[in-house]
Amino acid sequence: MFPAKLTNRLTLNTLRRIHPGALRPCRYSPSSVFLHAGGGRTGDASLHSDSGVLKRGLYGQSVSHPSLGPRETQQCGRRSISLSAATVVNAAPASVQPYLRLMRLDKPIGTWLLYLPSTWSIALAADPGCLPHLDMLTLFGVGALLMRGAGCTINDMWDKDFDKKVARTATRPIASGEISQMQALAFLGGQLSLGLGVLLCLNYYSFHNDLYSIALGAASLALVISYPLMKRITYWPQLVLGLTFNWGALLGWSAVKGCCDWSVCLPLYFSGVMWTMIYDTIYAHQDKEDDVKVGVKSTALMFNEQTKPWLSGFMAAMMSGLVVTGVNAEQTLPYYAVLATVAVHLTHQTPNREDAIEGDGAGGIIGVQEIDKKVPYQLQQQHLHQFEEDHTQGIRGRVQAESRHRGHKSAVGAQRASEQRGEAEEVADERQERHTGLPIG
């Protein structure tokens, strides 16, 4: 063991003296992979490490390549490429990236949350023993991507001033000034036009050639536009978000069957709304202190320390609605087995410790961390009062500043007029002296 180790070290030192640049760093080598995998004893770690360095010195394998993309790495001659949504956005042209971030293309969880209720409805509407229609699922997927982007654009246009005051949202394209309001409006028009095109395709792909689904889909636009305003007037904006995000539970069935079977669609829609209340209430806890400071409302602020009982109630209501849906749709045992799995998952994910949210717009569906970080009602009122007082003081300060500015301008004007009058009198005295030859005064 010792002679082998000594030989490796002597060879390594010789290589370093002959060509110091030959030993370039490599993140992984065959020996280090073997070592990390558990091969070799602890006492032989230096031997494996030195032999790995020796091999890297001989073969000249390298890791760092500045020319690679933001998520590309080269490990011992092999290139690893990540195809995440954020990587796709970062790889787009610089002029396009703000628009992709405006529609949250780099954060796809919101698109999934909008898409999933429609897939439930399409699957339930499928004929017994048949899989859901792939063309319909694809069409709704494209529609979910476009309408989620349109909703985010509308939200950011409404909340531009609020977003500037919150660190997490200050870098959004409109709030940061990368995109103007007019550019955002034009982009919104493009998204809505494409969304209308997808909606009109339902008439082509549907087995029932009527306008029922098109009218039902167009009706959701009122919710999409009004949702961002709800946080200003009610503590239940999450309820309006649920009504908006789960509209596909109605539209999916209608697209397949030609109209809604309300005995199936309504309890499914209700369950989706309750699901949204669960994950978005959890998500709202990460912003509640900022919400108080800027003066917006949420269920997280209203529930406070009672959040867990409310979440449990929403979960019970959600599962009850799904059971009613299954009964009215004449579902069989596999459906209820899936419901049991969902109930176990929700029970496990519903916070039972001091947890709050982490995520990009939906808390990773239901990811929690520090949910009991409470904002007492008195503190809310204190912040709201402080916000109103600061706003009033800001207005008063501007008025006083303008008044001082006007007073300063008046004083400067009066002084200048006095100087001009003095100069005029001196000129007049000089003229009189020249004419009379007598000194004045």
Automatic annotation (TrEMBL):
Its cofactor is Mg(2+). Its EC number is 2.5.1.39. It is found in: Membrane; Mitochondrion inner membrane. Gene3D superfamilies: UbiA prenyltransferase (1.20.120.1780). It is an enzyme of class 2 (transferase). It catalyses: all-trans-nonaprenyl diphosphate + 4-hydroxybenzoate = 4-hydroxy-3-(all-trans-nonaprenyl)benzoate + diphosphate; an all-trans-polyprenyl diphosphate + 4-hydroxybenzoate = a 4-hydroxy-3-(all-trans-polyprenyl)benzoate + diphosphate; all-trans-decaprenyl diphosphate + 4-hydroxybenzoate = 4-hydroxy-3-(all-trans-decaprenyl)benzoate + diphosphate. Residues 390-404, 418-441 have a biased composition (Basic and acidic residues). GO terms for cellular component: mitochondrial inner membrane. Its main location: membrane. One of its GO terms (biological process) is ubiquinone biosynthetic process. Residues 390-441 are annotated as: Disordered. It is a multi-pass membrane protein. Pathway: Cofactor biosynthesis; ubiquinone biosynthesis. Keywords: Isoprene biosynthesis, Membrane, Mitochondrion, Mitochondrion inner membrane, Transferase, Transmembrane, Transmembrane helix, Ubiquinone biosynthesis. The chain crosses the membrane at residues 184-205, 211-229, 236-256. HAMAP family: UbiA. Belongs to the UbiA prenyltransferase family. This is 4-hydroxybenzoate polyprenyltransferase, mitochondrial. It comes from Liparis tanakae (Tanaka's snailfish).
